[in-house]
């Protein structure tokens, strides 16, 4: 069965059809290690954590297979961590015969299925307390966990033909469909997730009522159904502290939304489901709402790393242009959720701007969520740190680790799509895809040192001559892209798909070149804390200064417009990264001893420049405690453009 | 009876003795309106709000005087709002015969006293539920409310000789002393307040066990007694969300503290109690801890407006140098708490740095908490706003309005102190103080337009010739202070008390001059969001740009080092304020349409300068919804100092 995360191959309103994971090989290059060793280490490490934290025991206990009570959890949604981990395993096993892992997966599934109740209900938090079922949709996360169960089951069903968990998921989905509908409970889950899961289950089974139930949940949202009853003091306190209806995106009907607000993962998961629904129904008002939210996100609320969520309070989006750096929340799961949503928008619309955002998040705020060895994680991904912030092997709320595991193991499935026009290339990285275009087998290969170098050598190999397009994403960050075929040079526009339509015969080489200059990027003047600062980026990668690479405190470094950067690939460093070195000014700190405020008349800069070294942002915090910053003051930020020469 | 907020006249380890409210007249000038009409409006407005919100009815209901249940409150500490309001009335009535208000106060007191239980316990939230008494010290605020009851009762006792509420407070204090001690309950209140209240009651009654009980609470703090029992899910959830022990300053014993952390008002109220305790016991380790916390606050965590508290999450102090502007929490109560603490530090140590902080908070983050007419309030006092943030007539958590009312009505009591050296002048403003120095009656007068002009004309009038010092605070913000007596000019050092010791005869005029240049102030480079920016200040007043005074969005305004400011007193504006106008650059915003990030190579400034107008920060948000900012980019911020001339 083709292994897709989102299988829109029969969705009437999708533009693109994904090329499934099992048809793509990531061969070496930048991604080889991440989707190989790192993903494997992450999976096994997380399995140990799931066991140590009693998350697996919860199922055995609910199944009556142990009388020992599992550790009391701080949160009610522990089950979902196991399901997301299974989903990661599903994609991982799509092309790898790893019997030990497969055995472990089977045993975990066995416990889960044994914990399922007669009628299909499955939620260990309510084991032995049937009276609590569906009683607190606001905070209980039953449907959220069900959604992850369904996604995990589909992944394994598609990749290894797993049936047991799959039918358990179907049984639970049936119960949900019977329970939630206009004649049943008119409610929604406090944490969206079930919507996209049910639509994927519809795609997998063809069973229309899953689509209808998802649509029901989407339609019911925004009717204030999540406000807890007055007598529930705990829920009311939490509801109030978290900010009320908007935290749950329950403050207005989905079709009326125009500002992205509330808990970032909730909002973005909901958008995944809504976009999925659009691809099935074609309802324009859904897509219009998504377009409004996308613009609001990308134009006013997205970190330069692609991250989402500005507030610790309720892990939420802030106001327009509210993007603090050190106190960025920027949850790993929110970046992944944005990636997942942009993927769906890309499938729906076929526009490069969505793939640009996927790439941005992927190389920056997603990868920053996991250590190079796969066993340490960030929950928050701040853009600056004064020290004391480091990665953890696990969290009491452990949503992020398995989320990044499933993202990494599914990554091959995001590289390519097809449509009636031909083959679409979304992401660059050494890889091979085998596709069938109008009955003709085509093997497509990339060889590249991307993201460190902008040259991508591609070959198209056809079984027999065929006419189709190769659609290459031209990254939005690139000023002077070039595509070279048979000696012809094209100069495509950035942030488009460059369409190379021709009759392909045998083996053809296509060379793309996306020159990577170091870019100094400013942010909108309403992002007040970044005024006067720039971030450095090269290719898709945003850079940072980390104290471990520098003699001077990164918080004191300032650069100028004329700064010359030395770009160097250092194989031995951080798994191999391109670094930037440059001469920089250093803010005077001596004059500040014991003072927080002083007259600006005194000199603000020290007397000498110093050499500093920048690394890709995603790779920071892999070498112990450190000070880090992405945004750097530009001392001639306000320098005016030279006046236009007059004709005289 | 002398009306002091903090009566340390017999405290063995206080340096200064306050001149009580009833010995000070504020006559016209800047403060005349605030402590007169504005305070009166505030008191009557708040009385209506206390009635409307059923806070007064709670007492009548608990007293069995009405069978109607009061509105359900969102919080448990509603009683304290009434007590703080009574405290405000107490100071207000010290010199004003306003019978209508006095009658209202008496009737409120009558209801309160009727609600008191047999044994002295008084907390309407637990009326009819005796089993809840003292059960949840973490969140129930019983002792916090008791503290405000005691403070309110003392104020009225001192000002109008009120006895009924006073003895009710004593009765409750006795119960507390019997209940909380080494042989009784070993616990503390989640919200400090009772400590300073009990010490003040000790000062009022001479009853030592109130001092002992306060010391007991201070000693017990930091022993983790506030962690809720595991079975209390609500309390545990809140405890965790708020950040655990440090939220309550319960993470370490008081004497070991070195960083100011946790809920800002809790931390600062605790410091008030600890400083009070030091003034009674002289225990050096207490003062050392306060000195460490003061330095940490002033050198790393205080807003340029004097405000405290950087985080919405738990209304708390942030990390060192964490001072966001638009998302500043900067609660009005926290600024008042800082004022109260610095007053106690000043009384204890007699150093001008404490009075400097009081003045800073007073003219900026405290006054900003109340509208010019006294009837609208800020809970948070951000240093920037993109609009949509306005003052409210009341809050569900209504701590701030009565707090600022009691601050305003007690303000005369903070102007002057005495010591064996003589008369100390802490604050400037037209006023008259009548004091007795070594048996000689002295009348001291100030005439001044402070804070708009730095000239202060003072007269010292003695009944008979006497030798003593006049100690004038020289504001820390002033570069070139001058004091002129009998034709002699002194040039005192800023942030000291200038001591003018002499034999005074009859009437002597002393002229002080504190020239008010517009200051461009930078903040420490670790305050990342202010790098490249300056704040404008003049005298004690910090300025802001508000959209209502400007054609250009204040967020786009940038200035340069050579900016010439036009300073103008505008009597008709905002109750009379000095404004600043200047020519400023405007950041290019047109080039940003639909973009959040772009290359810095494009011009960042528009082509023309524009005239802008700044007003004192405290006066913003009095003219409808607006955009506001305190910090402004300085386009030549990083300009290097000219190289020193070489000897050649």
**C-alpha-based Rg of chain A, rounded:** 25 Å
Question: How many structural units, i.e. domains of chain A?
Answer: 3
Share in helix of chain A: 25-40%
As for the CATH topology of the largest domain in chain A, it is: Glycosyltransferase
Give the name of the CATH architecture of the largest domain in chain A: Alpha/alpha barrel
Oligomerization category of the chains in this entry: homodimer
Shape of chain A: globular
Number of helices of chain A: 14
Largest β-sheet summary of chain A: 10 strands, antiparallel
Number of strands of chain A: 23
Class by helix and strand content of chain A? alpha+beta
Major interchain interface with per-chain residue totals: A-B, 76 and 76 residues
Strand content of chain A: 15-25%
Q: N- to C-terminal separation of chain A?
A: 72 Å
User: What is the mean predicted local confidence, pLDDT of chain A?
Assistant: 96
List low-confidence stretches of chain A. none
Quick one: CATH class of the largest domain in chain A? Mainly Alpha
Secondary structure: elements and pairs:
2 copies of one chain form a homodimer.
Chain A lengths: L16 E2 L5 E3 L2 H24 L2 H8 L15 H16 L5 H17 L26 H19 L3 H16 L14 H12 L2 H13 L12 H10 L21 H18 L2 H18 L30 H18 L2 H15 L17 E2 L14 H11 L5 E4 L2 E4 L5 E7 L2 E9 L6 E8 L3 E9 L7 E4 L2 E3 L5 E9 L2 E7 L4 E6 L9 E6 L2 E6 L10 E2 L7 E5 L6 E10 L10 E3 L10 E7 L11 E2 L1 E3 L15
Parallel strand pairs in A: 5-9
Antiparallel strand pairs in A: 1-4, 2-6, 3-22, 4-5, 6-7, 7-8, 8-13, 9-12, 10-11, 10-13, 14-15, 15-16, 15-23, 16-21, 16-22, 17-19, 18-19, 19-21
């Amino acid at each position: 069965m083709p292994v897709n995360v989102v299988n829109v191959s029969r969705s009437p309103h999708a533009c693109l059809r994904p090329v499934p994971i099992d048809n793509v090989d990531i061969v070496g290059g930048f991604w080889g290690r991440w989707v190989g060793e790192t993903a494997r280490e992450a999976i096994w490490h997380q399995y140990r954590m799931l066991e140590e934290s009693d998350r697996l025991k919860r199922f055995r206990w609910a199944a009556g297979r142990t009388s020992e009570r599992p550790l009391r959890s701080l949160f009610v949604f522990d089950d979902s961590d196991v399901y997301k981990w299974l989903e990661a395993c599903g994609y991982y096993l799509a092309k790898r015969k790893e019997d030990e892992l497969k055995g472990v997966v089977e045993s975990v599934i066995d416990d889960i299925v044994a914990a399922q109740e007669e009628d299909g209900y499955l939620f260990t938090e309510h084991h032995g307390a049937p009276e609590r079922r569906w009683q607190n949709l606001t905070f209980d996360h039953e449907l959220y966990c069900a959604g992850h169960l369904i996604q995990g089951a589909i992944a394994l069903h598609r990749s290894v033909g797993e049936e047991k968990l799959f039918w358990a998921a179907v049984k639970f989905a049936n119960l949900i469909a019977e329970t939630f509908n206009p004649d049943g409970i008119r409610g929604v889950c406090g944490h969206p997730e079930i919507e996209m899961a049910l639509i994927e289950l519809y795609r997998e089974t063809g069973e229309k009522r899953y689509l209808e139930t998802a649509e029901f949940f989407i339609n019911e949202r925004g009717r204030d159904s999540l406000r807890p009853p007055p007598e529930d003091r705990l829920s009311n306190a939490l509801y109030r502290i978290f900010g009320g209806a908007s935290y749950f995106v329950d403050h207005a009907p989905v079709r009326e939304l125009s500002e992205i607000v509330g808990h970032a993962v909730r909002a973005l998961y909901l958008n995944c489901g809504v976009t999925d629904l659009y691809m099935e129904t074609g309802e324009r008002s859904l897509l219009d709402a998504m377009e409004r939210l996308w613009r609001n996100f990308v134009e006013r609320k997205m970190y330069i790393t692609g991250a989402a969520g500005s507030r610790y309070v309720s892990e939420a989006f802030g106001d327009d242009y509210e993007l603090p750096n050190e106190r960025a929340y920027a949850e790993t799961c929110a970046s992944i959720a944005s990636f997942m949503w942009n993927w769906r928008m890309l499938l729906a619309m076929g526009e490069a701007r969505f793939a640009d955002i996927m790439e941005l998040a992927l190389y920056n705020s997603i990868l920053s969520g996991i250590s190079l060895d796969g066993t340490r994680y960030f929950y928050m991904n701040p853009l600056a740190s004064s020290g004391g912030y480091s990665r953890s092997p696990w969290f009491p709320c452990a949503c992020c680790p398995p989320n990044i595991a499933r993202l990494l193991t599914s990554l091959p499935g995001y590289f390519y799509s097809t449509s009636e026009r031909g083959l679409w290339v979304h992401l660059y990285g050494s890889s091979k895809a085998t596709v069938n275009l109008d009955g003709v087998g085509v093997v497509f290969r990339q060889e590249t040192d991307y993201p460190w170098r902008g040259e991508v050598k591609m070959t198209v190999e056809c079984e027999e001559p065929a006419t189709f397009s190769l659609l290459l994403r031209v990254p939005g960050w690139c000023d002077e892209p070039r595509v070279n075929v048979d000696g012809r040079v094209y100069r495509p526009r950035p942030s488009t798909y460059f369409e190379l339509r021709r009759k392909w015969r045998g083996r053809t080489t296509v060379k793309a070149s996306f020159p990577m200059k170091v870019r100094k990027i400013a942010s909108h003047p309403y992002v007040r804390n970044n005024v006067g600062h720039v971030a450095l980026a090269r290719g898709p990668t945003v850079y940072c200064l980390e104290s471990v690479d520098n003699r001077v405190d990164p918080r004191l470094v300032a650069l100028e417009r004329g700064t010359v950067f030395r770009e160097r690939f250092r194989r031995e460093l951080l798994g191999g990264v391109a670094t930037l070195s440059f001469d920089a000014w250093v803010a005077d700190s001596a004059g500040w001893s014991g003072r927080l405020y002083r007259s600006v008349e005194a000199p603000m800069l020290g007397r000498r420049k110093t050499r500093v070294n920048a690394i890709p942002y995603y790779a920071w915090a892999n070498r112990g405690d450190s000070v880090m910053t992405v945004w750097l003051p530009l001392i001639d930020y306000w320098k005016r453009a030279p006046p236009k020469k007059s004709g005289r």
